[in-house]
Amino acid sequence: MKRAWYAQWIVVLLLCMACRAADVFPAPAVNPELEKMYSEDQSDRQRIPIDWSVVGPRDSQRQKRVMEMYRAGELKAGEDYFRAAMILQHGRQPEDFLLCHELCITAIFVHGDEKGGWIRRAKWLAAASEDRFLGSIGRNQRFGTQYKTHDPDPQWHLDPVDDAITDWTREAWSVPSLAEAKRREIEMNKGSAEVRPKPPLQTPTSGTPAAGVANHSSDEAPNGTAP
Fold first, then answer.
1. 119-162-154-190 Cα dihedral, nearest 10 degrees
2. Which end is more exposed in the chain, N or C (fewer Cβ atoms within 10 Å of the end residue's Cβ)?
3. pLDDT per residue over 76-94, tens digit each?
4. Using alpha carbons only, what angle is made at residue 179 by residues 164 and 205, rounded to the nearest 5 degrees?
5. What ranges do the domains of the chain cover?
6. Interior CA angle at 101 toward 31 and 85, to 5°?
C-alpha cells in the first residue's frame, strides 16, 4: 500500500514538473523585423486593386531579406516560420512555394505546441503553397485553394483539382471542402469585371502575376490572412 502511494506521488510530481516546463522554458520570442515585414506584406494586399508596379518590388525585397534570415538561422519561434512562409508564398518561382510549404510543416511539427492562432493559418498555408507549387509546374492542385482569371475573360475559375485529396484531409489542414471552394468561385464572380470584391477571408495573391493572368487563393485562415 505504501509503495503504491509512493508511485502515485511520483507520477503527480512528474506531471507538475511537465506543466511548469512551459513556464520555465517559454516559447522563443518572435522576430520583430519579420513581424514588421509580415504586417507590411499583408497591408499591401488590402488595397484593391493592387498596384503591382509598387507591390511587386516590395515583395522581392521582403523575400530576399527572408531568405537571408532563414539561412542565418534567425527564425526561432513557430510564428517566425509561418510569417516567413507567407512572404515566400508571394514569390514567383516554384522554389519559393516549395520552401513556403516546408517552412509551414516545420512550424507545425516543431513548434506546434506553442500557443497562437497562427497554427491553423500555417496548416492552411501548407496546403495552399502545395497547390501553388503544383500549379507552377503545370500540375493540378490537390486541395482546391487556387483560382485564376485569364484575359480577356474576367471571370474567376477554380484551377483544376486532383481527386486524390478527400474533404477529411482538407478539414485536417484547415481547408474548406471542395464543394465550398466551388461555391466561392460563384461568389467571387458576383462583382464587376473591373474591381471584383473580396469574398469573406479571401484576397488576391502574390508577386506580379504573369501577363493576362491573375491569381487568387481561397483562405479559411483566421484573422483574414491575405495569401
1. -60
2. N
3. 999 999 999 999 999 999 9
4. 85
5. 32-224
6. 25
